[in-house]
Design brief:
Layout: E1 4-10, E2 16-18, E3 33-39, H1 43-51, H2 57-64, E4 71-75, E5 78-85, E6 98-104, E7 108-113, H3 118-129, H4 136-167, H5 174-206, H6 215-282, H7 296-317
Parallel strand pairs: 3-7
Antiparallel strand pairs: 1-2, 1-3, 4-5, 5-6, 6-7
Length: about 325
């Protein structure tokens, strides 16, 4: 049955045994639980759900839904759980998060995803190499922690990019950097969009009073919720830091423009009276002084230079330059 990507029987001793296709319908009694992980794109998945008596229409629709925000639903003693993980596939954007859905029963965990999560492979590998949780609740807690662990490199990368922009704030290209900051803020907002409800979903899950979620499992799930909260707070901090850096770049740009306008204003102020003098001496009317004197041009030039020097001294005193 190709629709099932992973199938394990976790015994009461914590040992995981890989299931053969003929044992996919196994429902162990007092001997651990079964984990079945399905491929949403395979048509055989819905056919399997239709044949399973414990999976009703509500469960099937939730598991096969195209998109759903993280949440926890208690359904006739069973639990429907929607979570999301970071897309770490090559060429993909991390904020394009991948959804995974769980149907948790006392002796079985059914999960389904449309695109492959790295965390799913981590869990399957962990089942083969070490002792696993003895209850479905412990299994879900471990899966939630694996999802958060896989988010850590993405969050670290975002933090490092913001750190670099903050350290090189005086050297970077303002126009290009504003574009980078906008992209970083968008990434942080998109990641936080799903992580915040995921934290709430895990908190809700930890409060469920069912036999297959023990007190220790509840603590582990709360720990996963706390980790999700920490990541959410880091994303919020990244968004705020991006806003601060963008404000600094805007202030630097405004300061540069003000400085340039000040220089232009000083130059205009200097040449305004000089232009007036040259304009007055340039009119062709009678009575103009030094028109018959050979040194008239140099006298006017000296007057202009003296006025310019006086203006510069005044501007310096006023700290305009």
């Amino acid at each position: 049955m190709p629709a099932i990507l992973h199938a394990y029987h976790v015994t009461k001793t914590g040992k995981a045994v890989k299931l053969d296709p003929e044992n996919y319908t196994l429902r162990p009694e007092k001997n651990g639980f079964v984990w079945l992980h399905f491929d949403r794109k395979d048509p055989a998945t819905e056919a399997f759900f239709e044949k399973d008596d414990s999976i009703d229409m509500v469960v099937s629709q939730n598991l096969c839904a195209d998109d759903s925000r993280p949440r926890t639903i208690l359904h006739d003693g069973d639990i429907l759980l929607n979570l999301r993980g970071v897309n770490l596939h090559e060429g993909s954007e991390p904020e394009d998060m991948i959804g995974i859905r769980f149907f948790v029963q006392d002796n079985r965990v059914v999960s389904i995803e449309k695109r492959t999560l790295k965390a799913t492979g981590d869990i399957a590998e962990r089942l083969q190499k070490r002792t696993t949780p003895l209850t479905p609740g412990g299994f879900i807690a471990g899966f939630a922690n694996a999802l958060v662990d896989r988010m850590a490199p993405t969050i670290t990368d975002l933090n490092e990019q913001v750190d670099e922009l903050e350290e090189r704030i005086d050297q970077i290209d303002a126009v290009k950097s504003r574009g980078n900051l906008s992209e970083l803020r968008r990434d942080a907002i998109m990641l936080r969009r799903y992580l915040a409800p995921q934290r709430d979903a895990l908190n809700t899950l930890s409060q469920q009073q069912v036999s297959y979620i023990t007190a220790d499992n509840q603590l582990s799930i709360r720990e996963a919720a706390d980790q999700a909260t920490r990541v959410t707070e880091e994303l919020e901090a990244i968004r705020e830091r991006c806003a601060i850096v963008k404000d600094q770049l805007t202030d630097m740009r405004a300061e540069e423009m003000n400085r340039n306008m000040m220089i232009l204003s000083v130059v205009a102020a200097i040449f305004l009276p000089l232009g007036l003098i040259s304009g007055m001496f340039g009119i062709n009317v009678g009575g103009m002084p030094w028109t018959e004197t050979g040194s008239g041009f140099w006298l006017v030039t000296a007057i202009v230079l003296i006025i310019a020097i006086i203006q510069l001294i005044v501007f310096k005193i006023l700290k305009w330059i």
